[in-house]
Each structure stands twice: as C-alpha cells, then as structure tokens.
Design brief:
The chain is α/β, with parallel strands linked by helices. It contains twelve helices and 20 strands. The protein is globular and about 70 Å long. Bound molecules: iron/sulfur cluster.
C-alpha cells in the first residue's frame, strides 16, 4: 500500500514513458476524473503492460495547488492489468478531436513512484491459471506439436494450436497445450448478438479490429469428444469450456454441444463441463443441463436491460432470456457465474448496484467474475449514448457492499473447477 499519491506518466509518442513530478496521477470513472487514494494503488502485476494513448492528454493533480490540470508534456499513458486483477479506475485523460479509437484492451489508470509502476486494482482471483510466470514457451511449443501430431485430422485441434495457442497466445489454449486446467472448445462461426466491442468480429466500417478471427467451420461431435475426454481424465483441476473469444455464440450450436456432452459423460465423470455464453437461449441451456452441463458463465456489461441492449444489440432475444438461462442452470443444481464487464462509473453507479442486487436475488447467482472491460472508454460511452454519469460508489466499495449482503456469492475472474464448486472454494492454488 502506498503512503503517497504516485506521479503521473506521459509518453513522448515513440513508446518512451516518463514521470511528471509536478502532477500526481488521477483516475477516471464514467466521464469524470477523481483523485485515487494511495491505499487503492498496487504495484503493476507481472504480465501487465503500459500503453501510450495517441491524441490524448492525461489529467493529473498539481502537487502544489491540488488542482486538476492536463499534462502538456506528451501523450497519456494507461495500464493494462493482467487477468485475476480488477481495475478500480480508468486512466484519466482528455481526448483531442482527432484522437483515434483505441483497440479492444482495458485502460486502467497508471502511476509511478520510487522506480515502480502502479495501478488502482485489486487481486480478485487466487487461481494462478493465467499467471504470466506460469507459461513456458518451449513447453507450450512442444505441447502444441504433440497435440497436432496426436490428432492430425482434427480441425479443432488445428485451430486451437495453430491459431489460438501459437498466434493469438490465448492463455486457455496455452494451458491446454500444457495438459492442464481449463481447455477451450470453440464451436460457433455465428452469433445472435452484435456487441459493440466484439472481440471476434468487427464490422469493416469500424476503425478498430477484433483481437482474433472468428472460427470458420462447425466442429463435429467426434472432433470435440476426441480430445475433451483425455483432457478431463488426465489434467489437474480439469474443465472443458465451450464459448471462447474466437467464435460467435455457442448456443447456436447447442445440438452439437449437447451430443458432445452426452458422449463425453459416457467415458468420464471427471471435471467440469462449462459454457461461456451470452445466455440468449434458455431452452437450449435446459437441453444442455439435461445432457450433463455443470456450469454456465453468462457475459454482460450491465444488470440493467437498457444498458445491456444498447451494447449487445441482440437479434431475436431479450435481456430477460439471459436471466432465465441463469435460473435454468440453478434449477438443475449447476454453477452459475456472470462475466461482468467492469467499467468504473457505470458498474458502480447506484442504479447498476440496485440492478445487480436484483439479479443476484432473482437468479440465486453463485459467482461474479469481475472482468476488466476491454474497450475504449470514450467510444463505449458514446456508442451507448451516455453523456453524463451518475453518483458512484467506487468499484471497491461496490464489491464490499455486495459481499456483505451476499456472502455466499463468490468473487473471481475464472470459471471454477469441480474441486472448488463441490469442495473447498478457497483452494490453495500453489499446485
Ligand atoms: S456475444 Fe460474443 S461473439 Fe457475439 S457479438 Fe457479443 S462478443 Fe461477439
């Protein structure tokens, strides 16, 4: 914990970053800049990055006057904080008229003190599955080669190893190549939503690109089962997860997924079978529960229908359908999480807090995965027509209030393995 405010950072526009000792770093929530108490800053965790933000000037707090002002020395700087940590404030900056839209990453506030970089964030997840230090490139390369050799005709293995693991460096695909933990199983080339910040498809007229390309084929049941069964039987803390960043909506492939689950469970009852989804088709979710689905993670930017609809732009489904999907899985005794896109100023508004409380109660929700929202803040608020933001609680206080009222609701960043769902949730992860 810091004893004083960290100093603001700026870049010279050529990738070189400097501290400005005339300004303390500030934070942003919604459209407003705020001082961030020293207690909320942590050292930027390993695996974090710093970004220079072209066409933007950081807002800081003058160390002498205490007044907010722009840093005129260079471009703004933000921190990308690694998975397992949740950002508490966005980077505070003012955009020039011709500032380009920023790519699909999260832009948390960043500061500098005593030769270290800091960001306002909390470690929300103890699971180490995406810990930067846990990835050995040589072992990953060997693991990918082994899988490609073991499954020469499997298009899904080819996609997961050639694209996801070796090109996109997807943490889940890299863990699969190492034979551990959560194995990704993308299935759907299409989607029934049109999310503004979709990471697998961006319309050609948009200036930003998706972070990975969407799957182009429909895998067969056999292609899924062939590697899913050995992974569930051999991996530590095994999970099979349908619904990945490199596809559309998996529920559009529910019949294939249902048949795959049935086939998998004929061979093994080990591990958890999970689906990451937009939750749009509760009937399909019911069929998957009947087949043996263990857990669901429904993604959402908000617990409020109008904010959800403005972002997801759903085709032929409503916000109420995603609520129903969560309820269906609970009715079958399954584990339910929301993949909650955290945006300071929106997520911690009073209206959102009330809506989140209602959602938890109505669905008997088991877990909130507090995920950093990978999107350009100005672009997002502009696209959902939010011109001013209400009174805020602060992300940390929001978490404390939810935990106080719903102590059984777990907080994290990743889908839990069966050992956490059925056993001790606070597992010691030094495995
Ligand atoms: S639900 Fe997923 S795949 Fe579909 S548009 Fe949204 S982010 Fe993209």
């Amino acid at each position: 914990m810091l004893s004083q405010f960290p100093y603001l950072l700026y870049s010279d526009g050529h990738g070189n970053i400097f501290e400005d000792k005339s300004l303390y770093a500030a934070g942003r929530a919604g459209w407003d800049a705020f001082p961030v108490s020293p207690a909320e800053w942590i050292e930027l965790p390993e695996g974090g990055n710093l970004y220079e933000l072209p066409g933007r000037k950081n807002i800081g707090i003058d160390v002498n006057t205490g007044k907010m002002r722009l840093c005129e020395k260079g471009w703004a700087v933000a921190a990308f904080i690694p998975p397992a940590y949740t950002g508490l404030y966005l980077a505070a900056y003012e955009s020039l008229a011709d500032a380009p839209t920023l790519p699909l990453f999260c832009y948390t506030a960043a500061g500098w003190l005593n030769n270290k970089f800091y960001a306002p964030a909390v470690r929300i997840e103890q699971d180490i599955r995406q810990e930067f230090a846990g990835y050995d490139d040589a072992k990953i390369k060997a693991g990918a080669a082994h899988l490609l050799k073991a499954y020469p005709h499997n298009r899904l293995i080819n996609h997961l190893m050639e694209n996801c693991c070796m090109t996109y460096h997807c943490p889940a695909a890299r863990n699969f190549s190492l034979g551990r933990w959560e194995c990704p199983v993308p299935t759907s080339p299409a989607c029934n939503a049109n999310c503004i910040g979709c990471i697998s498809f961006q319309p050609p007229e948009e200036s930003i690109v998706s972070t990975q390309d969407r799957l182009t084929f429909k895998p067969t049941v056999e292609e899924i089962v062939e590697f899913a069964v050995p992974h569930l039987m051999q991996a530590p803390f095994p999970i099979i997860s349908f619904g990945q960043g490199c596809e559309g909506e998996p529920l559009l492939m529910w019949e294939t997924i249902r048949d795959a689950i049935i086939e998998i469970r004929k061979h093994t009852h080990q591990g958890s079978i999970n689906i990451n989804t937009n939750g749009s088709k509760p009937d399909a979710v019911q069929a998957l529960c009947e087949a043996g689905l263990n857990s669901i993670r429904v993604s959402t930017n908000s617990a409020r229908k109008h904010i959800y609809t403005l972002y997801y732009r759903p085709n032929n489904y409503e916000f109420e359908d995603i609520v129903e999907s969560l309820k269906v899985v609970r009715n079958y005794g399954g584990w339910t999480s929301i993949n909650y896109f955290v945006f300071p100023g929106m997520t911690d508004s009073l209206e959102e807090y009330e809506a989140l409380r209602r959602l938890i109660k109505e669905t008997d929700l088991k877990m909130i995965q507090w995920r950093n929202f990978n999107i350009d803040p100005d672009w997002y608020l502009g696209q959902i027509s939010v011109t001013e933001t209400d009174e805020i609680l602060g992300i940390k206080q929001l978490m404390e209030l939810i935990h106080e009222e719903f102590p059984k609701v777990k907080f994290g960043y990743f889908n839990p393995p069966m050992e956490r769902i059925k056993g001790n949730f606070e597992l010691d992860f030094a495995h």
